[in-house]
């Protein structure tokens, strides 16, 4: 369960309110990487907070869970994730640019640490910005800082990072609005892979956001899948971020 909470930091999304499905288009003509990148960053993301309700299914080699997740996001500052089962809060996670905290009711454990520790545990580099970017359907990396080869693959523009020899990174975009459809990060020698898919998007007055997200993570031959449906969202509310570890919980450390 705890691994679901940590992975859920970067994957729980949403849908609701006044919205419409965004029409997409297949890529057919070659374009420069700069056009794909500039167009992707022109998408609407005009908000300060998001309040999200979603449902999610988690599955790995040993277990499967259907849960609901409440997400509170204050842009660039903090994200609070509450995981519930049958209306009961089973776990909470609070992430900021400097640290990650979470506790889980099953087992009575809690964790506090930085992204270096968390990234080592999950097998992929994470930071606050990457987590937030996944939540709003933006490329996890700052594409303006990388070097990319652009091709067309399965009618999507594929930007392949050519600046990092140890980690393979690819970003896939449709052609109408340059919405991201898939992100892949892989370290072949370490047998690590993270793939995030965005089947569809919806447009709100404040932003264009994914309406569904599917994640597959592989580490050491073990596979984890998370499929999320987005039920309700509101923008720019005055949110609070209540988080406190219940008395008697045991702190865990990740080597």
Shape verdict:
globular
The largest β sheet comes out as: 14 strands, mixed
The H/E string reads: HEHEEEEEEHHEEEEEEEEEE
Report the β-strand fraction as a percent range: 35-45%
Distance between the termini: 19 Å
Average residue pLDDT: 86
Give a topology summary:
Blueprint: H1 2-8, E1 20-21, H2 33-41, E2 49-59, E3 64-74, E4 78-85, E5 88-95, E6 100-104, E7 109-113, H3 115-122, H4 128-136, E8 148-153, E9 156-161, E10 168-173, E11 180-187, E12 192-197, E13 201-203, E14 208-210, E15 212-219, E16 222-235, E17 250-251
Parallel strand pairs: 7-17
Antiparallel strand pairs: 1-13, 2-3, 2-16, 3-4, 4-5, 5-6, 6-7, 8-9, 9-10, 10-11, 11-12, 12-15, 13-14, 15-16
Give an overview in words.
With 255 residues, this protein is mostly beta strands. Helices cover 13% and strands 44% of the residues. A 14-stranded mixed beta sheet has the order 8-9-10-11-12-15-16-2-3-4-5-6-7-17, with helices on one face. Strands 1-13-14 form a 3-stranded antiparallel beta sheet, with no helix packed on it. It is globular and about 60 Å long. The protein is built from 4 helices and 17 strands. Residues 9-18 have low confidence and may be disordered.
């Amino acid at each position: 369960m705890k691994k679901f909470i940590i992975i859920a930091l970067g994957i729980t999304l949403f849908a609701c309110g006044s919205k419409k499905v965004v029409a997409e288009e297949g890529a057919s003509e070659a374009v420069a990487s700069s056009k794909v990148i500039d167009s992707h960053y022109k998408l609407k993301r005009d908000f300060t907070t998001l309040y999200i309700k979603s449902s999610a299914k988690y599955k790995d080699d040993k277990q499967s869970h259907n849960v609901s997740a409440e997400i509170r996001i204050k842009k660039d500052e903090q994200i609070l994730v509450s995981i519930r089962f049958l209306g009961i809060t089973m776990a909470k996670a609070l992430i900021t640019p400097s640290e990650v905290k979470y506790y889980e009711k099953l087992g009575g454990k809690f964790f506090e640490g930085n992204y270096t520790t968390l990234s080592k545990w999950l097998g992929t580099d994470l930071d606050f910005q990457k987590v937030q970017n996944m939540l709003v359907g933006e490329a996890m990396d700052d594409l303006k800082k990388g070097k990319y080869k652009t091709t067309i693959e399965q009618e999507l523009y594929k930007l392949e990072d050519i600046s990092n020899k140890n980690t393979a990174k690819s970003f896939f975009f449709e052609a109408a609005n340059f919405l991201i459809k898939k992100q892949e990060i892989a370290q072949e020698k370490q047998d690590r892979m993270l793939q995030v898919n965005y089947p569809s998007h919806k447009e709100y007055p404040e932003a264009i956001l994914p309406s569904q997200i599917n994640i597959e993570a592989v580490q050491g031959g073990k596979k984890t899948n998370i499929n999320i449906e987005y039920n309700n969202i509101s923008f720019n509310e005055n949110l609070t971020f209540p988080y406190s570890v219940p008395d008697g919980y045991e702190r865990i450390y990740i080597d």
